[in-house]
Amino acid sequence: MKRILVLVLCLALAALLLASCSQKTAEPSSTPSSIAASTPEAAPEPTPEPAEPVSILVFAAASLKNALPEIYSNYQAEHPEVTIEFNFKSSGDLQTQIEEGAGADLFISAGAKQMTALNEKGLINSDTNIDLLVNKVVLVVPLGNPKGITTWEDVIDKAETLSIGDPAHVPAGQYTEESYTTLGLWDKITAKTVNYSADVTAVLATVESGDADAGFVYWSDAVSSGNVEVVAAAPEGSHKAVIYPAAVISDAPQPEAAQAFLDYLKTQAAADVFVKYGFTVA
Question: Is residue 40 domain-resident?
Answer without folding.
Answer: no
